[in-house]
Amino acid sequence: MNGTFGGMIGLLAATARDLMPIVVIVGFFQIVVLRQPVDNIGSLALGFLFVLLGLALFIRGLELALFPLGEALAEAMALRGSFALLMLFSFGLGFGTTVAEPALIAIGAEATRVMAGAGVILDDAETHERISTALRYTVATSVGASLMLGVFRILVGWPIHYFIIAGYILVEILTAVAPNEIIGIAYDSGGVTTSTITVPLVTALGVGLASSIKGRNPMVDGFGLVAFASLMPIIFVLIFGLVVAA
User: Fold this and answer.
1) Cα distance from N-terminal residue to C-terminal residue, the chain
2) CA distances from 24 to 6, 21, 44, 100 (A)
3) Each residue of 208-239: pLDDT tens digit?
4) Rounded CA separation 38/31 (Å)
5) Which of 234, 101, 226, 205 is nearest to 160 (CA)?
């Protein structure tokens, strides 16, 4: 019991240390730069305590559940020795954790409004719903495809920086020809995939897979899947914009 209590206190202290730079920066601009009084300081302090506790519990939950689950699934799939099954699992993990992401749903709805205002699509409810759904599934598919590519890279042992460089070159090319209205949406869709569920599971998948393959280093080969999961949606959505605007 004492060990558990001490561990929780240590986790709270570490979380408070991580949050402190944000508090310092916001306080500096509020008091020194903007020279505005801090209203409702009691409510702010209470809110900070709730954030501190919630974040600490969330991190603890990742350590106890999502990371071990992702690693165990990756190791089990690798031991099965089925390449097709591993690819299917990777795609399903990426697609499933992304398609229901609330932030992605919100971006899809906002994107259709912007495209309708710019005349890229028709401004009616049916078209809005259809384009928003198509955009959401495009991003989810891209995350699934990115995990398949990332897992394949781990299996064959290719350096990750080759893929990242090639991906950003493709992004630059597509950005030059894509409709202006879709560019910002595409870049934002790359960030929305790094959610609190997707990142732990994707990271655990890479580390678990690299740990279970002889000759792979979990630190070198296991990480990088999140980079794919952020890069691939940008490419897919830019292509999506070209297709919609055609």
Assistant:
1) 64
2) 27, 5, 14, 35
3) 888 887 777 777 777 788 888 889 999 999 99
4) 8
5) 226
Give the DSSP letter of residue 214: T
Nearest residue to 242 (alpha-carbon basis) of 172, 167, 173, 179:
179
Helices (H), the chain: 2-28, 41-61, 67-80, 83-99, 102-117, 125-156, 160-177, 180-192, 198-212, 218-221, 225-245
From the list 101, 71, 2, 102, the residue with the least C-alpha distance to 213 is: 71
* Cβ-contact 227, 143 below 8 angstroms: no
- Give the C-alpha separation, 209 to 221, whole Å: 9
Give the integer Cα–Cα distance in Å for 208 and 74. Answer: 5
* Alpha-carbon gap, residue 71 to 42, rounded angstroms: 42
- What pTM value is reported for the model? 0.76
Distance in angstroms (rounded) separating the CA atoms of residues 238 and 178: 6
Q: How confident is the model at residue 115 (pLDDT cuts 50, 70, 90)?
A: confident
The number of C-alpha atoms within 13 Å of 112 and in the hemisphere containing its C-beta is 20
Compute CA distances 123 → 28, 43, 101, 178, 237, whole Å: 45, 43, 25, 20, 20
59 secondary structure, DSSP code: H
Amino acid (1-letter code) at residue 151: V
User: Mapping DSSP to helix (H, G, I), strand (E, B) and coil, where does residue 13 land?
Assistant: helix
Rounded CA-CA distance 27/19 in Å is: 13
